Amino acid sequence: MSQIKKLSGYLNVSQRSTELVFGNFTFVLFLGFLGVLYIANAHFAEKGVRDIQRLQKEIKELKWEYTSIKSETMYKSMQSQIDLSLEKEGLDLDPRGPKVILVE
Predict the structure, then answer these.
(1) What's the pLDDT score for residue 10?
(2) Which sign does the torsion angle of CA 77, 83, 85, 90 carry?
């Protein structure tokens, strides 16, 4: 009869699992802490990836803006474009061109 009680005691899962959990409560808390730490680390890494992607997009847009401004500036600095902009103001460049100074 004592063997049957012993066997039924081992087969009673709820009692054994309760004893096991409360017997190792500090370890269960440690595992819970590690789980929370793992989740927090994953969220932090995802946030970093999103920030990097946002900054890469912003850099790409700024490069496009820089290239467009640079090409516009180069076009406006051509002598023919300067001459056209000065004609609107009533100024005219000398048609003979620049003077050459010779030093002997």
Answers:
(1) 60
(2) positive
The reported pTM is: 0.54
Ramachandran area for residue 93 (φ above 0: left; ψ -120 to 50: alpha; else beta): beta
Q: For residue 80, what are its two tokens?
A: 């023919």
- The tokens 């440690």 sit on which residue? 30
pLDDT, one tens digit per residue, over 19-76 is: 777 888 888 899 999 999 999 999 999 999 999 999 999 999 999 999 999 999 998 8
**What's the Cα-to-Cα distance from 65 to each of 56, 58, 61, 74, rounded to whole Å?**
14, 11, 6, 14
CB atoms within 10 A of CB 12: 11
CA 74 remoteness from chain centre: 33
- Asked whether the CA dihedral 58, 64, 66, 69 is positive or negative, the reply is negative
